[in-house]
Specification:
heterodimer; A: 128 residues; alpha+beta; three-stranded antiparallel beta sheet; 5 helices; 46% helix; B: 404 residues; alpha/beta; four-stranded antiparallel beta sheet; 12 helices; 39% helix; 13% strand; binds pyridoxal-5'-phosphate
Chain lengths: 128, 404
């Protein structure tokens, strides 16, 4: 399959790879997908007291498009408030990376990862 | 060393330059129709076809008159299953095959099923091997055909064809084998192996694409197949259509070369494959061999690199042409049906890479590929949340995944 230059760039130079401390109260972790389906994304966000995402990290098991989608969203969520981050739609990710139709599910997974990370963060805050 | 490196020789092989050379005159001065009986153009073409037929027959221990030319092994497999099914329908409508066959066999069997035939799918062990006892147990009074491939195109598993052939002979059931991947690589003798029908394809043995053959036994027993393609009655009525003489000449030349060089080439291919396998196993933890080590095609290596997805691995290996059993490399988004049939877990199927080492690969290329794979797996594992969890001692099976 031919990939767009954006996918190749994110695949070859993934941004913000890594791990944040799961136990940190300001960190939300989203783990979505399943190994049996061939893709798993873990997106982590660190949120400051103003409700702004100040850092994001990812690790992804999956095809090049899955890696690129998650790398891209780490860039996009940084500096956004939680509600702004919730506005990121899979279709924007897919368009930005020019994903072919069979790879749209990678962008859906990336959107799910954002929502899961935010939900995890909010749950921690509420539990306190 | 020239990049990219081609190491996908189960998909197709490069035409050997000696084969190309043999073909060329039959595209230019010797362009006659082999069915033209009344002038020298036709006779020259016919002679060339006869010679090639003999070369191909010799490769499998058959006689020239038992070779029927087809457009390729897809057609040969279709012709064997559908042709036998149609011709012998009055004797019975039961066919036995197995789940790792090429789709040309599987989908022909499914098509017959829709027409009222009954198909038995043989059980397989974890290496993809069929047990001859299971074949014996599956045979019924209304069984007309057993079809089990010789060498598998994905995992390289080589089936015990002679033993299965003996079972079929004893029970007087016709036996077809798809020998596309083994022809020219492992010795084949249709007599010793008790094979009644056998599929071949030139482009998997350094010949041209678009030409194949079906061996159809003429004696003990005389096997009949109803034709798929009707017309001028070529190939003794089993396959009509003007013979593509240049393709056939190339196929014949490829068969002759393979026969001459098989012993040396097989030893060399096994050496290269083991060099690659040993290097990968030594340097990459958690990598698994798919298929059987003992009963294996010389040039086949199929490995799963756990916690790394196959398509992303292929993307990293961009100077190397190999293939993957990952869903992402198929249109269906399902991981390899062959690995699934062996009971390989989906996650390992997604992580599989098939290396197909062939005549034109060198040791230098093997070492380059090994190096690249080792680097790529380690880079992608650093990106993999599964690898991180595995390192932390988390059992991935205990995690509640959100399947999508
Ligand atoms: C085992 C096997 N059978 C049949 C075929 C089909 O051969 P062809 O490409 O000549 O139709 C292939 C090749 O894909 C194969 O590997």
């Amino acid at each position: 399959m031919a990939y767009s230059n954006d996918v190749i760039d994110h695949y070859e130079n993934p941004r913000n790879v890594g791990t944040l401390d799961k136990a940190d109260q300001n960190v939300g972790t989203g783990l979505v997908g399943a190994p049996a389906c061939g893709d798993v994304m873990r997106l982590q966000i660190r949120v400051n007291d103003d409700g702004v995402i100040e850092d994001a990290r990812f690790k992804t098991y999956g095809c090049g498009s899955a890696i690129a989608s998650s790398s891209l969203v780490t860039e996009w969520v940084k500096g956004r408030t939680l509600s702004e981050a919730m506005d990121i739609k899979n279709i924007e990710i897919a368009e930005h990376l020019a994903l072919p139709p069979v790879k749209i599910h990678c962008s859906v997974l990336a959107e799910d990862a954002i929502r899961a990370a935010i939900a995890d963060y909010k749950q921690k805050k509420e539990a306190k | 060393m020239k990049l990219p490196i081609y190491m996908d020789n189960h998909a197709t092989t490069a035409c050997d330059p000696r084969v190309v050379e043999a073909m060329l005159p039959y595209l230019t001065e010797h362009f006659g129709n082999a069915a033209s009986r009344n002038h020298s153009f036709g006779w020259t073409a016919e002679q060339a076809v006869d010679k090639a037929r003999a070369q191909i027959a010799a490769l499998i221990g058959a006689s020239a008159r038992e070779i029927v030319f087809t457009s390729g092994a897809t057609e040969s497999d279709n012709a064997a299953l559908k042709g036998v099914a149609e011709f012998y329908a009055s004797r019975g409508k039961h066919i036995i095959t197995q789940a790792t066959e090429h789709k040309a066999v599987i989908d022909s069997a499914r098509a017959l099923e829709r027409q009222g035939y009954e198909i038995t799918w043989l059980p397989l062990d974890t290496e993809g091997l069929v047990k001859p006892e299971d074949v014996a147990a599956a045979i019924r009074p209304d069984t007309i055909l057993v079809s089990v491939m010789h060498g598998n195109n994905e995992i390289g598993t080589v089936q015990p064809i002679a033993e299965i052939g003996a079972v079929c002979k004893a029970r007087k059931v016709l036996f077809h084998t798809d020998a596309v991947q083994t022809a020219g690589k492992l010795p084949i003798d249709v007599e010793a192996m008790g094979v009644d029908l056998l599929s071949l394809s030139a482009h998997k043995m350094y010949g041209p694409k678009g030409i194949g053959a079906l061996y159809v036994r003429r004696k003990q027993p005389r096997v009949r197949v109803a034709p798929l393609i009707h017309g001028g009655g070529h190939e003794r009525g089993m396959r009509s259509g003007t013979l593509p003489v240049h393709q056939i000449v190339g196929f014949g030349a490829a068969a002759a070369l393979a026969m001459e060089e098989m012993e040396a080439e097989t030893a060399r291919l096994i050496g290269l494959r083991e060099r690659l396998r040993e290097r990968l196993v030594a340097e990459i933890p958690e990598c698994h061999l798919n298929g059987s080590l003992e009963c294996r095609l010389p040039g086949n290596l199929n490995m799963s690199f756990a916690f790394v997805e196959g398509e992303s691995l292929l993307m990293d290996l961009k100077d190397v042409a190999v293939s993957s059993g990952s869903a992402c490399t198929s249109a269906s988004l399902e991981p390899s049906y062959v690995l699934r049939a062996l009971g390989v877990e989906d996650e390992l199927a997604h992580s599989s890479i098939r290396f197909g080492i062939g005549r034109f690969n060198t040791q230098e290329e093997i070492d380059f590929v090994a190096e690249r794979v080792i680097k790529a797996v380690s880079r992608l594992r650093a990106l993999s949340p599964l690898w991180e969890m595995h390192q932390e001692g988390i059992d991935l099976k205990s995690v509640q995944w959100t399947a999508h």
